[in-house]
Amino acid sequence: xxxxxxxxxxxxxxxxxxxxxxxxxxxxxxASPDFARxxxxxxxxxxxxxxxxKSQQMHRRLYNMVERAGLRTFxxxxxxxxxxxxxxxxxxxxxxxxxxxxxxxxxxxxELTHSVLPELLKTRSNLKVWSAGCSYGAEPYTxxxxxxxxxxxxxxxxxxxxxxxxxxxxxxxxxxxxxDVKNVPPKLLEEYxxxxxxxxxxxxxxxxxxxxxxxxxxxxxxxxxxxxxxxxENDYDLICCxxxxxxxxxxxxxxxxxxxxxxxxxxxxxxxxxxxxxVGYQNLGLDNPIPFFYRRVR
Length: 298
Ligand SMILES: C[S@@+](CC[C@H](N)C(=O)[O-])C[C@H]1O[C@@H](n2cnc3c(N)ncnc32)[C@H](O)[C@@H]1O
What we know:
By secondary structure, the chain is of the alpha/beta class. The chain has 2 domains: 64 residues, Chemotaxis Receptor Methyltransferase Cher, domain 1, CATH 1.10.155; 191 residues, 3-Layer(aba) Sandwich (Rossmann fold). It is globular, with a radius of gyration of 20 Å. The protein is built from 10 helices and 10 strands. Helix 3 packs across helix 4. The protein has a 7-stranded mixed beta sheet with strand order 6-2-1-7-8-10-9. Strands 3-5-4 form a 3-stranded antiparallel beta sheet.
């Protein structure tokens, strides 16, 4: 597929090519022809290649959507997605899974603060950092909070990308619930967040209770990007890609990690999620000085 270059903060709707009309077929297993047609049609419509995701899991999740819509086939489901934008967003929600929180896996942020960032800051005072698969922003805001604490006047470049345009719009608002902030040190909560007056937030834990202050929100460049198709920038000091690749096929993961390495400067770090490993990392020119932190060494 031809790679697309996006400009930062370009979240506007692009014209999507119309999918071909699909013929009927049956449906309840990942190898069914109508699921194959569905994957093709989604690729044409969005550039998202569902065959790069683990087939059984993706099929299970999406078949559940077919059933919930009261339909029998993926052909019918695609027609529904074409007709109703809300259904299209629901499909994206279902395939992406946006679970996150600020300071998720606190020990990794400790290691970042005490080992990785000081090492990086020794060679460059202004870092270039990327949160890849940032969901509603908890990860890039955590990075921003730490960098703001460590380098009061640093002019760092912070990029945050996700495939899901709707979740990016949410990320730009910097809104978080009580549960999202449970690992945020109280001092940082006070310094960098406004508390919202939500009288009923104790009754409804999904209501946001905190918002990152506007000056800070503007420091992150958010943009839509498909990690499996779009072009990457280079010269990053740190890339965080955590809990994103779990549903990718092994081949897709391998290719992605190769691309991440090229996007790092020598000496830069890639942080992966707590269940993830880079198989054969030495061959990619990485070492692994701290669990889940990989450093480009050549
Ligand atoms: C579980 S969240 C991870 C959020 C954060 N990194 C963390 O660890 O808390 C996974 C995110 O990956 C995004 N994602 C899934 N496939 C993607 C792709 N091909 N390109 C970019 N983002 C993708 C989803 O939209 C979702 O927001």
